[in-house]
Specification:
mainly beta, 1 helix, 155 residues, five-stranded antiparallel sheet
Length: 155
Protein backbone atom coordinates (compact mmCIF):
# COMPACT_ATOMS: atom_id res chain seq x y z
CA UNK A 1 0.00 0.00 0.00
CA UNK A 2 1.29 3.45 -0.90
CA UNK A 3 0.55 6.40 1.37
CA UNK A 4 0.32 9.80 -0.30
CA UNK A 5 2.54 12.71 0.73
CA UNK A 6 -0.32 14.23 2.73
CA UNK A 7 -1.00 10.93 4.51
CA UNK A 8 -4.40 10.71 2.78
CA UNK A 9 -5.64 13.87 4.52
CA UNK A 10 -6.79 15.61 1.30
CA UNK A 11 -6.25 12.83 -1.23
CA UNK A 12 -8.24 10.16 0.62
CA UNK A 13 -11.98 10.04 1.29
CA UNK A 14 -13.99 13.00 0.00
CA UNK A 15 -17.40 14.16 1.18
CA UNK A 16 -19.31 16.28 -1.32
CA UNK A 17 -22.20 18.15 0.35
CA UNK A 18 -25.52 17.69 -1.42
CA UNK A 19 -25.93 21.46 -1.83
CA UNK A 20 -22.58 21.76 -3.65
CA UNK A 21 -23.18 19.57 -6.71
CA UNK A 22 -21.91 20.81 -10.09
CA UNK A 23 -24.62 21.52 -12.68
CA UNK A 24 -21.96 22.36 -15.28
CA UNK A 25 -22.19 18.86 -16.78
CA UNK A 26 -23.57 17.34 -19.97
CA UNK A 27 -27.34 17.79 -20.14
CA UNK A 28 -30.24 16.25 -22.03
CA UNK A 29 -33.41 18.24 -22.70
CA UNK A 30 -36.08 17.51 -20.08
CA UNK A 31 -33.80 16.76 -17.13
CA UNK A 32 -31.31 18.41 -14.82
CA UNK A 33 -28.10 16.53 -14.02
CA UNK A 34 -25.69 17.57 -11.27
CA UNK A 35 -22.27 15.96 -10.72
CA UNK A 36 -21.03 14.98 -7.27
CA UNK A 37 -18.16 12.68 -8.25
CA UNK A 38 -16.16 13.00 -11.48
CA UNK A 39 -12.60 13.51 -12.66
CA UNK A 40 -12.69 17.31 -12.43
CA UNK A 41 -14.06 17.38 -8.87
CA UNK A 42 -12.23 14.52 -7.15
CA UNK A 43 -9.99 12.88 -9.74
CA UNK A 44 -12.30 9.89 -10.31
CA UNK A 45 -11.13 8.01 -13.38
CA UNK A 46 -13.52 5.07 -13.47
CA UNK A 47 -16.88 6.51 -12.42
CA UNK A 48 -19.20 9.50 -12.50
CA UNK A 49 -21.92 9.97 -9.87
CA UNK A 50 -24.54 12.62 -9.32
CA UNK A 51 -28.23 13.36 -9.28
CA UNK A 52 -30.91 13.74 -11.90
CA UNK A 53 -34.27 15.48 -11.54
CA UNK A 54 -37.10 15.29 -14.04
CA UNK A 55 -40.00 17.65 -13.47
CA UNK A 56 -43.57 16.37 -13.11
CA UNK A 57 -44.97 15.15 -16.43
CA UNK A 58 -41.68 15.78 -18.27
CA UNK A 59 -39.59 13.46 -20.41
CA UNK A 60 -36.06 13.65 -21.69
CA UNK A 61 -34.92 13.60 -25.25
CA UNK A 62 -33.61 10.29 -26.55
CA UNK A 63 -29.91 9.80 -25.85
CA UNK A 64 -27.17 7.30 -24.99
CA UNK A 65 -23.93 7.45 -23.01
CA UNK A 66 -21.42 5.97 -25.43
CA UNK A 67 -19.45 3.03 -24.04
CA UNK A 68 -20.41 3.82 -20.44
CA UNK A 69 -22.66 1.69 -18.26
CA UNK A 70 -25.21 3.58 -16.16
CA UNK A 71 -27.07 2.76 -12.95
CA UNK A 72 -30.04 4.86 -11.86
CA UNK A 73 -31.42 4.56 -8.32
CA UNK A 74 -34.91 6.01 -7.87
CA UNK A 75 -35.26 8.06 -4.67
CA UNK A 76 -38.66 9.66 -5.20
CA UNK A 77 -41.30 9.44 -7.91
CA UNK A 78 -41.96 6.96 -10.70
CA UNK A 79 -39.55 6.51 -13.59
CA UNK A 80 -40.79 5.27 -16.94
CA UNK A 81 -37.91 4.15 -19.17
CA UNK A 82 -38.16 3.72 -22.93
CA UNK A 83 -35.32 2.23 -24.95
CA UNK A 84 -34.39 0.73 -28.30
CA UNK A 85 -33.73 2.01 -31.81
CA UNK A 86 -37.29 3.44 -31.91
CA UNK A 87 -37.83 3.57 -28.13
CA UNK A 88 -39.97 0.49 -28.68
CA UNK A 89 -39.53 -1.00 -25.18
CA UNK A 90 -40.84 0.34 -21.86
CA UNK A 91 -40.53 -0.43 -18.13
CA UNK A 92 -41.26 1.44 -14.89
CA UNK A 93 -39.34 1.81 -11.63
CA UNK A 94 -40.26 3.37 -8.28
CA UNK A 95 -38.52 4.39 -5.06
CA UNK A 96 -35.85 1.89 -4.06
CA UNK A 97 -35.58 0.39 -7.56
CA UNK A 98 -32.38 0.29 -9.61
CA UNK A 99 -32.24 0.70 -13.39
CA UNK A 100 -29.29 -0.56 -15.46
CA UNK A 101 -28.57 0.99 -18.88
CA UNK A 102 -25.90 -0.81 -20.96
CA UNK A 103 -23.44 1.04 -23.25
CA UNK A 104 -24.80 2.65 -26.44
CA UNK A 105 -28.47 1.82 -25.68
CA UNK A 106 -30.74 4.62 -26.95
CA UNK A 107 -33.11 5.51 -24.09
CA UNK A 108 -35.46 8.11 -22.69
CA UNK A 109 -36.40 8.84 -19.08
CA UNK A 110 -39.99 9.88 -18.40
CA UNK A 111 -41.49 11.14 -15.17
CA UNK A 112 -44.66 9.05 -14.92
CA UNK A 113 -46.15 11.47 -12.37
CA UNK A 114 -47.97 14.67 -13.27
CA UNK A 115 -47.52 16.19 -9.81
CA UNK A 116 -44.23 14.94 -8.33
CA UNK A 117 -40.60 15.51 -9.36
CA UNK A 118 -38.69 12.33 -10.20
CA UNK A 119 -35.48 12.30 -8.14
CA UNK A 120 -32.70 9.80 -8.80
CA UNK A 121 -29.05 9.10 -8.10
CA UNK A 122 -27.03 8.31 -11.20
CA UNK A 123 -23.70 6.45 -11.46
CA UNK A 124 -21.71 5.83 -14.65
CA UNK A 125 -18.64 3.73 -15.36
CA UNK A 126 -16.38 6.60 -16.48
CA UNK A 127 -14.94 9.73 -14.87
CA UNK A 128 -16.43 12.11 -17.46
CA UNK A 129 -20.06 12.66 -18.43
CA UNK A 130 -20.77 11.33 -21.92
CA UNK A 131 -24.15 12.21 -23.40
CA UNK A 132 -25.04 11.72 -27.05
CA UNK A 133 -28.44 13.28 -27.76
CA UNK A 134 -30.37 11.53 -30.54
CA UNK A 135 -33.16 12.38 -32.96
CA UNK A 136 -35.48 9.36 -32.77
CA UNK A 137 -39.06 9.01 -33.97
CA UNK A 138 -40.55 6.83 -31.20
CA UNK A 139 -43.04 4.07 -31.89
CA UNK A 140 -46.62 4.91 -30.92
CA UNK A 141 -47.12 1.97 -28.55
CA UNK A 142 -44.01 0.50 -26.91
CA UNK A 143 -43.82 -3.09 -25.67
CA UNK A 144 -43.72 -3.49 -21.87
CA UNK A 145 -40.75 -5.49 -20.63
CA UNK A 146 -40.77 -7.19 -17.21
CA UNK A 147 -37.61 -8.07 -15.28
CA UNK A 148 -36.97 -11.72 -16.11
CA UNK A 149 -33.85 -13.79 -15.47
CA UNK A 150 -33.03 -17.24 -14.11
CA UNK A 151 -34.33 -16.18 -10.66
CA UNK A 152 -37.17 -13.80 -11.59
CA UNK A 153 -39.73 -15.50 -13.80
CA UNK A 154 -42.23 -13.76 -16.08
CA UNK A 155 -45.53 -12.95 -14.35
Amino acid sequence: MTTTSDGWRHSGVRVIPGDQLDTNTAQTPGMNRAAAINFARVGAEKLWAGTVHIHAGAKTGAHHHGDLESVIYVIRGKARMRWGESLEFIAEAGPGDFIYVPPFVPHQEINASDDETLECVLVRSGGEAVVVNLEIAPVETPTAVAWVDSIHKAP
